[in-house]
């Protein structure tokens, strides 16, 4: 227990963060030796401000005792940088957290196809639907989704994974005992029950604005790849992408309408070659299937885990199932049809997307047929199909044929 006390003591020193914390630990070898050092020894570390040295000279362990008591009260575990179970891929980043606070299951991240998912808090319906669908499909096919807990894309990614019965990881920007936002209490409990809540901040720490950019390096650090779903041109999402690029992670992005502010960041990532455009989970997982043999399941035949199948059939999951094709016998045709008022398309879809959707009204066709019917260049047709699929208006069948997944009401 004293070992954990010294770890907590070290991480609570004011002004000691990032490279300074790493420098102190590397100089002394262990937190116990850092705790036992005197002022002269601290000055030998080099680069430490006087205020940091004064903080290190405070040898009280009272704060550490309070933190350990809170961890015991809330069922929070601690994982230190020198523990054998600390994820190697996280340890290898430039500034790994010295202590991780953990509630829920423990995962061998180095053996997991962990995929980070990030995006705007002010997400559009298009973005939240895309995040939920991608997260559900990734989880169903063997990946482990890593995200945050903020409103918008984070929450949608969490719900998508949970509603197909799989685990999900939420990395927080405050103490695990502090629910943020407050209306996410149930999400906190659900994630802790089947996945894990992770933070580098001790219990009692508020979720502050400056914590989120720092937190983002952990999301990408735990992952082998990061998906940006929606983001403005300057946003925390792009900061996470920068972390991912610096950490040599794969980067993916969901395309959006060219005039949508919340898609400007992701579209730019794709345009500039920083991210791979993705339409579905397989576009991500195909990059990692060789690295995780036997763990990932590609293709439409991928099925839910047995315990999740019951939940889905009972209506627990509102994310469309992308597993086995649905049989016509499940519902009468009139109940299985989703109708879309054509008048609503003026606001929801671009001109190209409307033309492509109209061209699909007569049945499933290939891309070449759509180009012929619409007289729209192939690249724009493919872009429109990508967005329409993510929105759930178009479905792909075998042989690269596409059909309308909605019925248009023209009145």
Layout of helices and strands:
Layout (H helix, E strand, L loop, with lengths): L1 H10 L7 H10 L2 H6 L2 H5 L6 H7 L5 H13 L2 E4 L7 H4 L7 E6 L9 E5 L6 H16 L3 E4 L5 H10 L5 E4 L13 H10 L1 E4 L11 H12 L2 E4 L7 H11 L3 E4 L10 H8 L4 E2 L3 H5 L20 H8 L19 H4 L2 E3 L3 H4 L2 H9 L5 E2 H8 L3 H13 L3 E4 L3 E4 L2 E3 L2
Parallel strand pairs: 3-4, 3-7, 4-5, 5-6, 7-8, 8-9, 10-14
Antiparallel strand pairs: 1-2, 2-6, 11-13, 12-13
Helix pairs in contact: 1-6, 8-9, 9-10, 11-12, 18-20
Q: In percent terms, what proportion of residues is strand?
A: 5-15%
Strand segment count: 14
CA-CA gap between termini: 71 Å
Integer count of domains:
3
Q: Tell me roughly what share of residues is in helical segments.
A: 40-55%
Largest sheet: 9 strands, mixed
In the CATH hierarchy, the architecture of the largest domain is: 3-Layer(aba) Sandwich
Q: Please, how many helices? A: 20
The shape is elongated
Widest sheet: strand order? Answer: 1-2-6-5-4-3-7-8-9
Q: What is the CATH topology classification name of the largest domain?
A: Rossmann fold
Could you name the ranges where pLDDT drops below 50 across 5 or more consecutive residues? 301-336
Specify the structural class.
alpha/beta
CATH class of the largest domain: Alpha Beta
The whole-angstrom Rg is: 24 Å
What is the average of the pLDDT values? 85
């Amino acid at each position: 227990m004293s070992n954990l006390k010294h770890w907590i003591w070290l991480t609570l020193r004011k002004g000691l963060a990032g490279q300074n914390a790493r420098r102190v630990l590397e100089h002394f070898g262990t937190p116990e030796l850092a705790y036992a050092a005197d002022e002269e020894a601290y000055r030998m570390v080099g680069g430490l401000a006087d205020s940091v040295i004064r903080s290190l000279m405070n040898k009280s362990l009272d704060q550490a005792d309070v933190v350990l008591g809170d961890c015991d009260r809330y069922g929070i575990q601690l994982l230190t940088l020198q523990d054998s179970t600390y994820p190697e891929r996280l340890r290898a980043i430039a500034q790994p957290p010295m202590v991780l606070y953990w509630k829920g299951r423990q995962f061998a991240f180095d053996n997991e196809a962990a995929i980070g998912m990030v995006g705007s808090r002010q997400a559009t319906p298009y973005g939240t639907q895309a995040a939920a669908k991608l997260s559900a499909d990734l989880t169903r096919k063997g990946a482990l989704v890593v995200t945050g807990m903020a409103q918008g894309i984070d929450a949608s990614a969490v719900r998508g994974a949970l509603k197909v019965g799989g685990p999900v990881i939420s990395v927080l920007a405050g103490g695990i005992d502090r629910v943020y936002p407050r209306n996410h209490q149930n999400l906190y409990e659900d994630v802790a029950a089947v996945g894990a809540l992770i933070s580098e901040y001790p219990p009692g720490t508020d979720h502050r604005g400056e914590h989120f950019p720092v937190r983002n390096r952990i999301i990408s650090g735990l992952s082998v790849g990061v998906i940006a779903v929606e983001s403005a041109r300057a946003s925390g999402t792009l900061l996470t992408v920068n972390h991912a690029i610096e950490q040599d992670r794969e980067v993916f992005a969901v395309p959006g309408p060219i005039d949508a502010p919340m898609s400007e960041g992701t579209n730019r990532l794709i345009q500039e070659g920083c991210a791979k455009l993705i339409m579905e989970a397989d576009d991500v997982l195909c990059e990692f299937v060789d690295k995780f043999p036997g763990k990932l399941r590609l293709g439409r035949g991928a099925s839910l885990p047995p315990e999740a199948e019951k939940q889905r059939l009972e209506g627990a999951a509102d994310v469309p199932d992308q597993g086995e094709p649905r049989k016509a016998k499940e519902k009468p045709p009139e109940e299985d049809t989703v109708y879309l008022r054509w008048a609503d398309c003026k606001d929801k879809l671009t001109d190209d997307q409307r033309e492509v959707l109209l061209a699909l009204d007569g049945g499933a066709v290939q891309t070449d047929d759509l180009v012929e019917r619409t007289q729209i260049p192939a690249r724009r047709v493919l872009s429109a199909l990508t967005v329409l699929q993510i929105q759930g208006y178009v479905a792909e069948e075998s042989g690269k044929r596409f059909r309308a997944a909605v019925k248009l009401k023209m009145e």
